[in-house]
Design brief:
This protein has 252 residues and is an alpha+beta fold. It is 27% helix and 18% strand. The protein folds into two domains: 126 residues, Trefoil (Acidic Fibroblast Growth Factor, subunit A) (Trefoil); 105 residues, no CATH class. The strands form four sheets. Strands 6-7-8-9 form a four-stranded antiparallel beta sheet, with no helix packed on it. A two-stranded antiparallel sheet has the order 1-10. It has a two-stranded antiparallel sheet with strand order 2-3. Helix 1 crosses helix 2.
Length: 252
């Protein structure tokens, strides 16, 4: 018997363009050949298929070797929805196999963990009376249209998941109708220190200066430093990070 509880299928947003992201922060659309936006479509027996939002004849299929591909409706996987162990996350189950995005790729496998649990990214509100309380990630997405800090935290979660700035920008546009940070940006000491910390983290992760610059635009609107911290404020950045900042230029 599965330890995962069934999710009332009425809680899912059917025939609505959505993005899918694992609890690890990996976006389905970042996989070559996979659609950026998908839709759930109901089938008989309380199951559903996952279809490309733009290409209506393209559905998520699985090969005999467990790897998932885009194929015909006739051979599309018919999923059941279950509640994941991560708050607000969903498991897509297919004959005791679970849809996952692992280091191997986009697969079905009888495993569990964050790679097998999915968050739905949609600009529409899901019926909250049917779903468990939203996860921290879903909360950030919900308040990110008015809370600048929440939006930056959401962006960094996407970036930490290995997603490109281009893809993150498109997700932001889907969620909020714009990829532009909330304005005006308060250039406080806390913001300046936070920005330098983010630069350091992206440097440590091996991002190029171009990638770092593009991500800074999503986070703060510009790539240039926001100014020096006030006298007496403890700085956390190293000389290397400061030098890197000075090399960035305003985009456009």
């Amino acid at each position: 018997m599965s330890r995962f509880k069934h999710l009332d299928i009425k809680a899912l947003p059917f025939k609505t363009p959505i993005g899918l992201m694992t609890a690890e922060g990996k976006l389905l659309g970042s996989i070559p050949g996979m659609p950026m936006f998908v839709e759930f479509h109901l089938t008989e027996g309380g199951t559903f298929v996952i279809r490309s939002s733009k290409e209506v004849d393209k559905y998520v299929n699985v090969r005999a070797n467990k790897y998932c591909v885009i194929g015909k409706r006739e051979t599309a996987m018919r999923f059941e929805a279950k509640m994941g162990l991560t708050d607000g996350a969903i498991i897509f189950e297919y004959f005791r196999q679970r849809l996952a995005l692992t280091e191997e790729g986009f697969i079905t496998y009888p495993g569990n963990g964050p790679a097998y649990e999915w968050c739905i990214l949609t600009p529409f509100q899901v019926n909250t009376s049917l779903l468990s309380p939203a996860s921290d990630l879903q909360h950030l997405a919900a308040v990110g249209d008015t809370d600048a800090l929440a939006r930056r935290q959401l962006i960094m979660h996407f970036i930490d998941g290995g997603n490109s700035s281009t893809y993150v920008a498109e997700i932001l546009d889907m969620l909020y109708g714009s990829m532009t940070p909330l304005q005006p940006l308060a250039k406080t000491d806390a913001i300046k220190v936070e920005r330098r910390q983010q630069v350091l983290e992206m440097v440590k992760s091996g991002r190029t200066t171009k990638e770092i610059g593009d991500n800074l635009v999503l986070l703060y609107g510009v790539t240039t430093p926001l100014g020096k911290t006030s006298v007496g404020v403890k700085s956390v950045e190293s000389g290397a990070a400061s030098a890197m900042e000075e090399g960035f230029e305003v985009v456009g």
